[in-house]
Each structure stands twice: as structure tokens, then as C-alpha cells.
Amino acid sequence: MLLQARLHSHRLPRKALIQLQGLSVLSHVLRALKQIPVAVRALLTDDRSVEALAPIAGEEGFSVFVGPEEDVLARYARAVGHYGVRRIIRATGDNPLVSARAAQTLLGIHQRENYALSHFLNNPLGTGVEVVEAWALLEAAERAQDPHEREHITTFLYRHADSYRVGEIPCPDDWAFPEARVTLDTEADYALLKELFAELYDGRPIEIDDVVDWLKRNTLSRIAPTGQE
Question: Do residues 105 and 36 make contact, with C-beta atoms less than 8 angstroms apart?
């Protein structure tokens, strides 16, 4: 389990520290992810963020690895070498509603189908993870030149899907709501998350079934039809 987070994002700086029901966004992410049985749990961050983020990671049982701020692909590649992992569940620190249940389901499919990289389709943005084989990530780190590929880690593999077995898997129907987003990138995202957490959070991670049910009850009227603002 390798989770990336930093404090100096361009759109919403320090968002990992924003509070939801008395806990930081990062704490919610870590508490959800540590429900997944894995050998390694690590937060991957940078020099400018580690002082603020490391105590949160440690409190939730995650080790901390520091790597390049902008070249996130290199950060992951170095962490793979440091921890000696063969397969990575990749998550990000701005998704407080990431689903352990969905991640474990995806992991099973990924292993069975022998994918190099996989993710679910149609689930709300912010509830999912990627699963990627370490060998494929290391190849990407050696070959990727585009700055976008260095920043977004798996972009190189998606762009070269003819060379890598990539699974883009429709999620179970109960989790499907592709119009919705529960990631944290803007003030509007934060307003929605505050509303959702105020109603659903009871001290335990909120799972995807309840997230999707709440979103369908509370946000369908707010989503503009395709082609409209």
C-alpha cells in the first residue's frame, strides 16, 4: 500500500490537513486504507510536507518515505526499491472516502486476470484506487519522459496499453455513479464532503455502498445533464 500526499497542491493547498468531523482528510484516508490486509503501508511525500504529515501517518501505523516533490513517478520507483514490494495498491491523500471494500475487490480481479495495471470504472471519483505491478511501474519510471507522465505515475502505462495488460473494469452496479465526485480538489468539493460526513460519519470509515446511496439521494438534482453548465 503506497499512498501519495503533499501539502503544496496548486488548487487547494494543505488540503490533506483540512478537517472533516474532527479528523484531517489524511487521517480519514489512512483509516480507510489500513483495513486492507497488506505487508507494507507507507505514505510517500516530499521534503516540504513531511514534517506536517509524518505524525499523522505514524499515528495510523504508516511508515513515511520522502522523495521528489514533482517527479512523483520517481518517488514511487524509489519507494518500490526501498520496501521491496512486488505489487502496489496506489492511493492518494485527497480521497477521504476511498473504499477498502472496493480496493480488495479490485485486487482480487487484478490478480486473477494477471493485469499489470487495473482500476474500476464508473464508481464516484475519489472512492477508488489503482493496483499496479512493481515491474510495470519501474519500467514506466525508466521510460517516461513527458512531465505529465512523471507527475501522474500510471499515465505512461495507460498510454502504452498495447504493451501492458491494463484492466479498466466496470465496477459492481451498486457502486456505479460515474457523474459523482468525492475527491477533494476545490472549495465546492469540501462543501459536499462536509455535508456528507456530517450525516454519515460515526467514527468509522464510510464505505462505498453508503457513499453512493447518499450521493444518489442528495446530489442527483445538482448534477447538470450532459452538455449543460
Answer: no
pTM for this model (two decimals): 0.93
What is d(CA 26, CA 57) in angstroms, rounded to the nearest whole number?
8
CATH numeric code, 2-222:
3.90.550.10
Domain locations along the chain: 2-222
As given in the structure block, the three cell numbers for residue 19 are 478537517
pLDDT in tens, the chain (229 residues): 999 999 987 778 899 999 999 999 999 999 999 999 999 999 999 999 999 999 999 999 999 999 999 999 999 999 999 999 999 999 999 999 999 999 999 999 999 999 999 999 999 999 999 999 999 999 999 999 999 999 999 999 999 999 999 999 999 999 999 999 999 999 999 999 999 999 999 999 999 999 999 999 998 766 644 433 3
Residue 193 and residue 29: Cα distance in Å, rounded?
A: 13
Pull the grid cell for residue 33.
Answer: 486504507
Kind and range of the H or E run holding 200:
helix 187-200
